[in-house]
TrEMBL record:
Listed name of the protein: Peptidase M48
Example GO biological process: proteolysis involved in protein catabolic process
Gene Ontology CC terms, in alphabetical order: membrane
Organism listed in the record: Aliterella atlantica CENA595
PANTHER family membership: METALLOENDOPEPTIDASE OMA1, METALLOENDOPEPTIDASE OMA1, MITOCHONDRIAL
Length: 270
């Protein structure tokens, strides 16, 4: 018997490259399908999470940001502005909630909502604001993410994605790595265009209810769209500012909102 016949008989020829590619494609498709299903389930279950559980989750994440925050007059003023917006929220969005701003004195231009009812505002973003109205739009936008629970959805998808991948790769330490990725997932959350539009719509509504007009709603994003060299994490985790401006203008026209006089920034925020 020859060495060639010892490896493959005439009835069992070696698999062709095409067959191998088909098997690989089926296997890859199966993995992608399972991961997609996990992400869909995670997104669907978000609305079943009660605020009390979210607060417990926040207790694990918020301290990391509290260590970076600076309890300055600026933070106090930001919370006063947030309180004004909060009073305009529907009752069901205020019940059992304790929204607060954590001001982080870093030059990064970013803002984010994290579990535990905290809105993170970086000093770099504050330096970009030129009116109280545009700053209120940013705060209202983050309240919009709370309203639609986008922060939890992003966290859930990221952690569950890591768990699913670790399962297929046989990583026994997936629990530790998944837990460690929680804060990073929140910091680098990238929402879809529809999620951002929904959050913007909440921000516009709060701006209208607070001032009786929506002047300043597009200013912050319009200014960012002109920035070229600046540490703007906002540009990495949100849709392009120019596109945001167009979508905001569409929403303003659709809702029939009017423009008015903008209020200057409070002295402690200048």
């Amino acid at each position: 018997m020859s060495s060639k016949s010892a490896n493959y008989s005439s009835r069992n020829p070696p698999p062709s490259n095409r067959q191998l590619l088909i098997v690989f494609g089926i296997f890859t498709g199966l993995i992608v399908g399972v991961i997609w299903l996990v992400m869909w389930v995670a997104s669907s279950l978000i609305w079943l999470i009660p605020p009390s559980v979210e607060q417990q989750l926040g207790a694990l994440i918020v301290p990391a940001y509290e260590r970076l925050a600076a309890p300055t007059p600026a933070q106090n003023t930001l919370n006063e502005l947030l309180n004004r917006l909060e009073t305009k929220l529907p009752p069901e969005q205020r019940q059992n909630r304790d929204y607060q701003v954590l001001y982080i004195p870093e030059d990064t231009v970013n803002a984010l909502a994290i579990p535990g009812d905290r809105i993170i505002i970086y000093a770099g973003l504050l330096k970009q604001a030129q009116s109280e109205n545009e700053l209120m739009m940013v705060l209202g936008h983050e309240l919009g993410h709370f309203a639609h629970r986008d922060h939890l959805r992003s966290l859930g998808r990221s952690v569950l994605m890591q768990i699913a991948i670790a399962y297929f790769l046989g990583d026994a330490g997936w629990i530790q790595s998944a837990a460690a990725s929680g804060i990073a997932a929140i910091s680098n959350a990238q929402y879809s265009q529809s999620q951002e539009s929904q959050a913007d719509e909440v921000g516009l509504t709060l701006l209208q209810k607070t001032y009786g007009h929506v002047a300043g709603a597009t200013d912050f994003f319009a200014r960012l769209s002109q920035k070229q060299k600046v540490d703007v994490d906002f540009l990495a985790t949100h849709p392009a500012p120019g596109r945001r401006v167009k979508e905001l203008q569409r929403l303003i026209k659709q809702q029939g909102y009017q423009l008015g006089n903008k209020s200057p920034l409070p002295p402690t925020l200048r």
